[in-house]
Structures are given as structure tokens and as C-alpha cells.
């Protein structure tokens, strides 16, 4: 326990000293990420997460997903590492922030190398319709937040939960399909071809 506490304090010291990319844990170290989230303001964590992902990607040190791992699990695990990244209309990466379709596009591109369409309506059209009861982790859930057209998308996590980039002033977060707002605007569940 003492060793874990020392590691956490050392990590926090490095973060506060300004060496963010050296301090952030790998995506699989969810425990460390949660500890940092509890201690740091979301805006600080947002910038540190983005800096880490971008520096590793540009240096070519970003670990590719294991090819023998379950694609759905990889999608969910990676999506969860992006929590608290700020919303930005038209945003397509962690540095600038994400809109809903940009978030989904980024996750599928990074994990599976799949180039999904750029907006939620096109993602809805270009994926296979499935029944809500058949939803599995990694499937997409769509909503009508602006009238009758599909205008919002998230990634289903299982257990009635989904992760998404909601709207201006918000951050990537997990919500429940059963919440009144989302339940009334649910437009359908779809499965991208990469998961069929």
C-alpha cells in the first residue's frame, strides 16, 4: 500500500512540476487515472491527457491494440480513457476536444483502424440496424436532440450505459439510456460493419 501511495505522490509531483507526458499512466492503468481525476481539476486533466496521447502518437510509441484481443472490449476501454475531454463542435481529437461524432470516429479509428463517417446522421445510415435488446458493448446508440433528425451518437458500454461527448460546456462522460432526457430522444441502435 505504501508503494502505491509513493507512486501516486511521485506521479502527482511530476504532473505539478510540468512534465505531464512522463507522468500520465498508460490507458490500462485505470486505477491511476481515477486517482488523478479525483485530485486534479477536469480542465487540467483534460490538457494532460491530450498532451500524453498526442506526444506518444507523434513519437510513434503509442501501443497498437492487441490483434487477438476482443475488439468490443478494446473500444470500450479506449473510449473510457477519453472521459473528461471537453466538448468542441467539429472537434476530432483530444487536443481540440470532441463533438459526439468526432469522439466516435476517433475511437473507432484509433482502436480498429476504421474510418467511420464524419457526422452522426451518416454514422446512423452507414451502420446495421439492431434491436435495442441486442445491444452489445461497442455498438452505437443514436438520439434525436434537435427535432426529427438523428443528431447525436454515443458508444454503448453495456449495462444500459453509454459514453459520449454531450454538448457545449460539457465533457466526455457516461450516461444511462434510461435517463429521462436520453430515453425520450432515443433514435435507435446500430452496429458498424467492423463489429459484424
Query: In the CATH scheme, what's the topology name of the largest domain?
Result: endopeptidase fold (from Nostoc punctiforme)
What is the name of the CATH class of the largest domain? Alpha Beta
- Beta-strand content: 15-25%
Strand ordering within the main sheet: 3-8-4-5-6-7
**What gross morphology would you assign?**
globular
**What is the overall pLDDT average?**
78
- List the domain count as a whole number: 2
Helix-strand topology string: HHHHHEEHHEEEEEHE
Please compute the radius of gyration using only Cα atoms.
17 Å
Characterize this entry briefly.
With 196 residues, the protein is of the alpha+beta class.
Give me the secondary-structure topology.
Layout: H1 2-17, H2 20-23, H3 30-39, H4 42-58, H5 71-81, E1 92-93, E2 97-98, H6 100-112, H7 120-125, E3 128-130, E4 140-143, E5 152-158, E6 161-164, E7 173-176, H8 180-185, E8 186-191
Antiparallel strand pairs: 1-2, 3-8, 4-5, 4-8, 5-6, 6-7
Task: Summarize the structure in words.
The N terminus is likely disordered. Strand 5 and strand 6 form a beta hairpin. The chain is 42% helix and 16% strand. The strands form 2 sheets. It has a 6-stranded antiparallel β-sheet. A two-stranded antiparallel ribbon has the order 1-2. The N and C termini lie far apart (43 Å). Helix 5 packs across helix 6. The protein has 8 helices and 8 strands; from the N terminus they run H-H-H-H-H-E-E-H-H-E-E-E-E-E-H-E.
Features:
196 residues, alpha+beta, six-stranded antiparallel beta sheet, globular, disordered N terminus
